[in-house]
Amino acid sequence: MIPTNDSSLNGNETEFLAVDEAMSRILTIQQRAFSLFVERRSERRPDYPTRIQMHVLHILRDREIVSVSELARLLSVSVSTVSQLINTLVERQWLRVEISAQDRRRHDVRITEIGAALLRDRYHERLNTVKQVLEQLTPEERTMLVNLLERSVAIWQSSQEGSKPYGS
């Protein structure tokens, strides 16, 4: 178990946080997590995909075939920007581009087996990282963490229903 100053995790009397204190601590935790992400990003191997490249690979894994213009729309970028991104991924053999059989003016983008294998490998790496963290927690803490995350996402999701999409 990770040492902590929080009395609620040491079996002592639980101190409840006011909403403002909880918000402040969550934002601090978020900043620390982002700092860790930035540090690890600088350690990223040159042969690893960037976050946007991973996002593209996930889209193509889930949809199998996507046109260049549709991918640009999904990513909210211009066709020329997505074309540059696709070219990089094609050079790395993670994607391939074909002329559409239905419309010869359209270019269809597909993930390659190499790209799909990369996604599988990265998924297993993420699982191992999460496992290492969860192994540091007690079974009760793991259960509490999962339940709180599920509840938080459900609350956030229900509060978003009927509201404008982010960035609109």
Outline:
This protein is 61% helix and 8% strand.
User: Considering DSSP H and I runs of 4 or more, what fraction of the residues is helical?
Assistant: 55-70%
The CATH homologous superfamily of the largest domain: Winged helix-like DNA-binding domain superfamily/Winged helix DNA-binding domain
By helix and strand content, what is the structural category? mainly alpha
- Number of alpha- plus pi-helical segments: 6
First and last CA, distance: 43 Å
CA-based gyration radius:
21 Å
Indicate the low-confidence ranges by residue numbers. Answer: 1-5
The proportion of residues in beta strands is 5-15%
Kindly give the count of domains: 2
Order of helices and strands: HHEHHEEHH
Q: What's the β-strand tally? A: 3
Strand arrangement across the biggest beta sheet: 1-3-2
Report mean pLDDT, rounded to a whole number.
85
CATH class of the largest domain: Mainly Alpha
Largest sheet descriptor: 3 strands, antiparallel
CATH topology of the largest domain: Arc Repressor Mutant, subunit A
Shape: elongated
Q: Per CATH, which architecture of the largest domain?
A: Orthogonal Bundle
GO biological process, one term: response to stress
InterPro entries: HTH_MarR-typ, MarR/SlyA-like, WH-like_DNA-bd_sf, WH_DNA-bd_sf
GO molecular function: DNA-binding transcription factor activity
Pfam families: MarR
